[in-house]
Amino acid sequence: MGASFPRVSAPAIQVEDLHKSFRIPTHRVDSLKERVVRPFAARDYRELKALDGVSFEIERGEFFGIVGRNGSGKSTLLKLLASIYRVDSGTIRMAGRLAPFIELGVGFNTELSARENVVLNGVMMGLTPREARNRLDAVVEFAELGEFVDLKLKNYSSGMLVRLAFSLLLEVDADILLIDEVLAVGDAAFQQKCADAFHEMKAAGKTIVLVTHAMGSVESYCHRAMLIEGGRIRTIGAPDEVGREYLRLNFESPVAGAGADVGGARTDATVRMLDVSLVDAEGHRATAAEHGGKLRIRTRIEALRDFAGLELSYLIANPDGIAVSQWRSGVGGDPPPPIKAGERFEIETTADNLLAPGHYLVHCGINRKVEGGIALEIPAAIDFVVYGTDNHHALVALPQETVTTPYEGE
Amino acid sequence: MNTAVDTELREVSGPGALGGGRQRFFDLLWLLAVTEFKRVYFGTVLGYLWSLIRPLMLFGVLLFVFTQVFRLGSEQVEHYPVLLLLGIVLFTFFQESTTNAVTAVVSQEGVVRKTQFPRLVIPLATVLTCAFNLGLNLVVVLGFVLAFGVDPTWSWLLFPVALAFLFVFTAAVSAALSVLYVRFRDVAIIWLVVAQMLFYMTPILYPVTAFEDATKEQLLMLNPLAVIFEQVRVWVLHEPQAPTAVEAAGGVAGLIPAAVIFLGACVFAVWTFSREAPRIAEDL
């Protein structure tokens, strides 16, 4: 979507030439004895440049997305913005009050009740204790946790915790919010509330920085987005443009180095992946699908040479690595017809969503159907959440039909 | 949600010992200490009594040993049991605060790594929680003091001064230990030993005069805790045979080393904490 944003020159965040590197000790000096025995040991380290000259500006009231692969420096940037890490060089300027939380519920003490936690965390986020107490009701009401306000958090379900944390974040009235992948949580009704709250915050002129690797949420909320790779800004601009660049980055260059995405993509450079994503009924990229609805996966590919036939394969797995479902379809039809170099295809596969609510990964592959072998393989190409009101304790929810009749036999 | 948005750009200074404004610092400090205090004492069956049982048991054992076995105390000190109890309660505050503070920052790892948080609040909240305990324990001690026939005097008004010095010293040591522990995990073990040594280097079990040697008395007065405890004895128990800290140190000049150590601990704590605070999140 990426609604156009009226540009006014009132930056909320201004970042200039930011550098940050970490010293990774090759031999960690953890005790005084080692310090004494090997006084120069601390000098054995290698320097890891997490951010290397990053400059950008975020306008007041802007919903700004930061995307990048694991290890690209996006989390470091967020921690610098949140004053958790100190910059090596460069400056960060901000206008207004920042909610200094980068992960929901991180300040919660599970031994304390929701009431105590809301007050404590409210103060951490810059409220006075009186303000925090006054807002307790609003927080609890929004989170729909009224009757549990005096329950210790250790007895909360994870969904309840997230709701409490999110409501608190909305109530602290900060001007700038830093959010690290939290959008796909809770059931459908709460998701809708969060979406409404985001739009309300947008309307109220809050500046929101969202860090994620799910392009779907960037495209549905953000005015502008930035792609970071190797500690540098690769693209900054409209969300769909950044999204395309991100996919290109993910699918074309082999993922290398430590901290790369799960497994890493493998390709023999005969097929190019243009896009692969979960989509909604209108064809927009999505990060979540409702249980009981449809599950749609769309892939766009380009053949770089002639093929006797290609087959597209998806493997849907849960985060424990258990494969739940496998889909196969011929590229260009079934059985797969021969393909010429330069031909492009869009393949959309739809299935009834029988997956139980939870988090899933889609591994994507393209097989040479006739010649044999794998042309392209992308582990964890899509990352999505299934939400629903039922709390299933199994991987799939098969449609059932039950018949009960009186039984009068032996 | 319609408060006016501040439009002035300000440079972000990064994480620090006090980061985020003074008001927030004190609000957080107070709130953390109070919630921790409540958590401990409403979470257990005997609640607050636990914090009293420990020093009282130590007191009982030591009282038996030093009045029945060694007969050290009762001859030189008029109110030996009171002196012993007061000393144990005050030292328990110092020992509990500092040992709890050592691991405080590291055990709050999640908060430290993921939020902007004035780091100094963590060890200080630990000290403050122990100070609440001390306050309650002192009420019990007051009962003992009166029961043993010590009359209230004007010098009792000076007792809070001694407490203030004890609090500042404890806070300084706690802050320094908590941040050193992030880098050197040996600190926890070393501190257990040092705290034990300090217990014996402070006139709690014995009066200063037990040495009957001016040089040794002066040596003892190098320990800031010894100075504080001795002065408490003079102010609270007002025994004629108890020397003031100045007398025990052999004159005002004799107290200079203790004052230097006291100030040195404070300066070192501030210096090391503000030096390490910005990097705690990275070092954890």
Walk me through what this model shows.
The complex is a heterodimer of chains A (410) and B (284). Chain A contains eight helices and 18 strands. Chain A has 410 residues and is α/β, with parallel strands linked by helices. Chain A folds into two domains: 234 residues, 3-Layer(aba) Sandwich (Rossmann fold); 123 residues, Distorted Sandwich (Coagulation Factor XIII, Chain A, domain 1). In chain A, the strands form four sheets. Chain A has a six-stranded mixed β-sheet, with helices on both faces. In chain A, strands 10, 12, 14, 15, 17 and 18 form a six-stranded mixed β-sheet that branches. In chain A, strand 17 and strand 18 form a beta hairpin. In chain A, helix 3 crosses helix 4, helix 3 packs across helix 5 and helix 4 packs across helix 5. The longest helix of chain A has 16 residues. By secondary structure, chain B is mostly helical. Chain B has one domain. The two termini of chain B are 37 Å apart. Classes of the chains: A alpha/beta (410), B mainly alpha (284). Chains A and B meet through strand 1, helix 1, helix 2, strand 4 and helix 3 of A and strand 1, helix 1 and helix 5 of B.
Break the fold down into its secondary structure elements and pairings.
The complex is a heterodimer of chains A (about 400) and B (about 280).
Chain A: E1 11-25, H1 32-37, E2 45-59, E3 63-68, H2 74-81, E4 89-94, E5 98-99, H3 114-124, H4 129-142, H5 158-171, E6 176-180, H6 188-203, E7 207-212, H7 215-221, E8 224-229, E9 232-237, H8 239-252, E10 266-267, E11 271-279, E12 288-290, E13 294-303, E14 310-317, E15 323-330, E16 344-352, E17 358-368, E18 374-387
Parallel strand pairs in A: 3-7, 3-8, 5-6, 6-7, 12-18
Antiparallel strand pairs in A: 1-2, 1-4, 8-9, 10-18, 11-13, 13-16, 14-15, 14-17, 17-18
Chain B: E1 10-11, H1 22-43, H2 49-69, H3 73-76, H4 80-107, H5 109-114, H6 121-147, H7 159-183, H8 187-200, H9 214-220, H10 224-237, H11 245-248, H12 256-276, H13 280-283
Helix pairs in contact in B: 1-6, 2-4, 4-6, 4-7, 4-8, 6-7, 7-10, 7-12
